[in-house]
User: What shape does this take?
Amino acid sequence: MINDLWVHPALLLILGAFVLPFVQRGSLRKVFLVAVPALAFLATYSMEAGTFATMSFMDWQLTFGRVDQLSKVFAYIMTLMCVIGTIYGLHVEEDAQHIAAWLYVAGSLGVIFAGDYLVLFLFWEVMAFSSVFLVWFRRRPQSLATGYRYLLVHTFGGLVLLAGIVLQYQATGGDISFNLLTDAVGGDKAFHLDDIFNVSLPTYLIMLGFILNAAVPPLHAWLPDAYGEATVTGAVFMCAFTTKTAIYALARGCAGMDILVPLGVIMALYGVVYAVLENDCRRLLAYHIVSQVGYMVAGVGIGTAMAINGAVAHAFAHILYKGLLFMGCGSVLYMTGKSKFTELGGLYKKMPRAFVFTLIGGLSISAFPLFSGFVSKSMIVAAGFEEHLYWAAFLLTLASAGTFLHTGLKVPYFIWFGENNCSKETWEKAADPPANMQWAMGIAAFFCVFIGCYVPYLYHMLPFQDEARHYAEMVYGSYHVSESLQILLFTALGFFLLLKKLKPEPTISIDLDWFYRMGGRGFQWLASKPIQAVDNGVNEGYRYLGLIPLMTVARFWSWFDWHAIDGVVDGIARGVRGVGGVGRRLQSGRLQNGLLYAASLSAIILIVYVLS
Amino acid sequence: MIVQLIDFLRDRLKTVIRLCYAGLALLVAWDIIFVDKHHAHTWPEKLWFFWALFGFVACVLIILVSKWFGHCHWFGGKFTIMAPEDYYDK
Assistant: This one.
């Protein structure tokens, strides 16, 4: 049923994931690993706008391929990042890690091309259930618990989204198409309390599902929790896909929803505050995802053509520089086994290239002129000024000082310079990472600089071309360059003057995940004490009222079983034992493996169904 | 090559710092004398030193407020946001 000319890039990744275990010869495997995401990228690159891969399922018309300017630019950057991420992980021997990463990207692409809520929801869940493996594969004792917390939060978010979809379906009389939720859009662009009350419940629920994945406080704590614990290569994938897919969904469904403006501003500042306190470099970067995605959420909330352009451009640039930063800090973790500032420092002599690449990522995220953040982030802030949302624009500018402070200054300084806190062992292990990791960082760094220097490359892909052309004329105007340089360089001055204050401390920061981490303990206590007591009481009563009659009946059945049924069963048992033997080889008793098989099987069934 | 360059600069740290200060001064001077502030949206942006001060004050504020937030004893003394690393293992 799939259109002959249109291949879903997610399908290529899913098929690639299933063929991968059969491609085991060293060099061939590497070619295959790069070729699959590269094919997905080419498939996206060569797409024409239109609607493809529609099929009817029960009463519904499902759309797997809605291609327009918005979905195409997101799919472009997702598949590009998939190529870079896979090159970065080329040295990883374990097939399952690549499979999980590819299925995760496939989920993201599925959401991006989805034309209706059912397909969106399906791939939304694929994303959550495949990405959790990127945490579990770290295989530290705490990885398992972190993964389950991640899954728990995303299952909750998925359920909220599903509830919203069902209610929306009912309210619209059977419309499941995924478009702008019209009642989400406020009349005036300024933030009005009226809008909060006028928006309907289904719209709120769908928005809640989306913003949980975008990590909007108070629904954000899963992000630093999981991304700090993911594998070195897994974190590179995770930092790109979940939050930015959510931004796509918000831009499609909730553009102009006023409440997103204050939420986005809070996000931008919240991430900055926690980044000051953080001692683990990858958790610091994770908090800066919260901060940067805040700009995009605010941009979607502002909702003008320029702001949406800004949100899309910033998502595009962000995926590359944040991937680069996670690759840089990941290579430190990969080589030394350490990611805490209090256990690192002074490494520039040992890992100079990782330093330069991370610095390029840091300058890009800080929106230095000639780097990618400069041409994307400023568009959102400028849109805020144009809509006279001065408080939002100034606070977002304030947050951008914080971004440079941490990612541009604190991360490189305390890993590669500053006080040398490395143990002898750490120092000896430190060196620039394997060639494939350096290549991946080099490619990402190239794009970060290229986007910043050659403006039309990114701006040509944005959804609103007139506004993009208009903004391209002023982005490198002297006022904008001077403003940005002053903010950034005087932030740097403040950093070096207050360097002592910023000395890393060996602590963790309590965030809102406290509630479900401690809440879990409360539940355990409840289960072990009061519920156990009730259970005992019920058991006692049951023994007298139920057990004695039951035993009598049981004695009869045991007689019947002994004499009549055994003869028949013995034959079947031999058959079952054979099947059980095969099953035993497949399952090692670990729930994670079971989940992977279940997820793979559902994917196969889905492919077969779509293709048949 | 990268390491040599960094070492070269570190050996002349005093000069580098002086050059940085000079760079900051030049930037502000350029902003005051040459930059067209036509595109500014609000009146304070047209003041001298505005964005330079904004950047510096933002940086100081972020550091001080965040550190206060992290070290402050909340809810009557026992609870701090910055907790020992084994907080959740206890």
